[in-house]
Write a structure and sequence with these properties.
The chain has 90 residues and is mainly β. It has one domain. It has no helices and 10 strands. It is globular.
Length: 90
């Protein structure tokens, strides 16, 4: 859920449901392990545990969200920026 920072009013809801990365079973509510904002771009990095997806969510235009999915391993956990703030490690 993308919310207005002042009022906490929901602005956009984006689902994370999908299939698990290893057994390809449908998962209705995969857990989100991390949501981290970029320091340089209007983007969130979202790690979705069971589906093994890393989502790059560009929120510059809320009516036309641009979401890039990167396949990864199951059970993603938290991550963080390197010292240069250029790379995000997950």
């Amino acid at each position: 859920v993308i919310m207005d920072g002042q009022t906490l009013e929901p602005k956009k809801i984006v689902g994370t449901r999908g299939t698990t990365v290893d057994t390809q079973e449908y998962h209705p509510e995969p857990r989100v392990a991390a949501i981290v904002a970029s320091h340089k771009h209007p983007e969130f990095i979202v790690n979705v545990k069971e589906t093994g997806k890393i989502m790059l969510v560009n929120y510059e235009d809320l009516d036309n969200l641009s979401i890039t999915n990167i396949d990864a391993a199951r059970f993603l956990h938290d991550g963080g920026w390197d010292s240069s703030m250029r790379y995000f490690l997950t």
